[in-house]
Fold this sequence. Notes:
The complex is a heterodimer of chains A (169) and B (267). With 169 residues, chain A is mainly α. Chain A contains 7 helices and no strands. Chain A folds into 2 domains: 1-80, Rna Polymerase Sigma Factor, Chain: A (Orthogonal Bundle), CATH 1.10.1740; 81-169, no CATH class. In chain A, helix 6 (134-141) crosses helix 7 (145-168). The longest helix of chain A is centred in the C-terminal third of the chain and has 24 residues, at 145-168. Chain A is globular and about 50 Å long. Chain B is of the alpha+beta class and 267 residues long. Chain B has 3 domains: 8-54, no CATH class; 66-110; 119-265, Coagulation Factor XIII, Chain A, domain 1. Chain B is built from 6 helices and 11 strands. In chain B, the strands form 2 sheets. In chain B, strands 1, 2, 3, 5, 8 and 9 form a 6-stranded mixed β-sheet that branches. In chain B, strands 4-11-10-6-7 form a 5-stranded mixed β-sheet, covered by helices on one side.
Amino acid sequence: MLSRQDPEINIEEFYLRYGPMVLRRCIQLLRDEEKAKDAAQEVFAKLLINKKKLKGQHASSLLFRISTNTCLNILRKHRHSDLLDSDATLKNAVAYDESENKIVLQDLLRRIFRKEKPSTWEIVVMHFVDGMTLQEVADEVGLSVSGVRRRIREFRSRAEFKREIYYDK
Amino acid sequence: MINKRIRTWELERYLLGELPPSRMAEITKLVHEDPDIKKEVDHLSQDNAEILRRHPSETMLPGILRKYEENRRQAQTRQKSRFITIKRLIYTTPVLASALILLFIVLMKDGVAPDYTRVKGEESLDFMKTQVVIYKKSNTEIALLNNRDQVKAGDLLQLAYIPAGKTYGVIFSIDGNGVVTLHHPERKSDSSILKQEKKNLLSSAYELDNAPDFERFFFITAMEEIEVQSVIKKAEELALSPASVKTARLELPESYSQFSILLKKEK
């Protein structure tokens, strides 16, 4: 098994230990088991490339981030809407009102996310979908709590702005 | 105060034992006290097993390694294009070029220029093919040996293997005296698991003795653990058969792949 001091990876042992967590994350975000399988393979391939990053941190944390970013990239590339259809969700992120039309909301969310930086996606998903506190998000992504708070505040204000424009049209 | 709200990602890390110690202790306490939380933990454990059943490592690993190889190649291409950009910059910036040449001369004078070792023949290596790679070191260079190349007693060989998606493997050689030498794993009782670098050097080099005629190296691979003892037994049987020892395959399960390379000994 991997020691935290030695970034040597036995990929099979690694897969057996962390594979379920990675696959579960990919299924959660992509909502499609085949796509999730493909994404999970990509996640472990990236881990092999970035194995030096394992030094000094738990593999679960690094894999969780790689999984999140890999899936968000897939969603962005394919303009996938399944994440935005999730019950679990980003509704809070844009102050969703239950009375709003769901299709309109999804369209709005897509427009908002298309313009955001990948690192903002990551923070927003961790905070609003995974229910992480600002401190937990900061620990995960290596930013300060105030940095995370600012990114979320700015995201919400941009989302709110787009929302107003959207409804004004 | 204990935070009773446990998120899925936290529970996953709890099962992996990768949460901060204080939170590990809190959740352990909650698991003992709250049957609902205990149920959640059990459910997640079962779900882990179920995910591995649906996506076993045998079906996932080849894809992981293929993507790793693709990513690595793309990264190399990016690096190359960065190098070309730097080269272009040097050519188009005479002052910078002169400064670099001057720096190089100073480094050479001080004897700190890098010591380059050329590996002859390595550019033809196919990293998608599961194989053993043998290097011969001489005073001036390191050469990659091909099947039926000639070697002599005293030559220093370094073995490496390219797993190309195979997860387990045994490397051994048979010489002209019928002696079987195990190279990987180190001991028959060790696991035959392979490292998954693109190319993996064995930990020690190997000096050829004066056994006559040939050295044949085998690389037996599989996607499951190989019983090294039984492979070596088959190799010893083959070593006793002079008529076929240089060409025959070992009688092994069909799921095992076999690669061999023969080196001829100078008389």
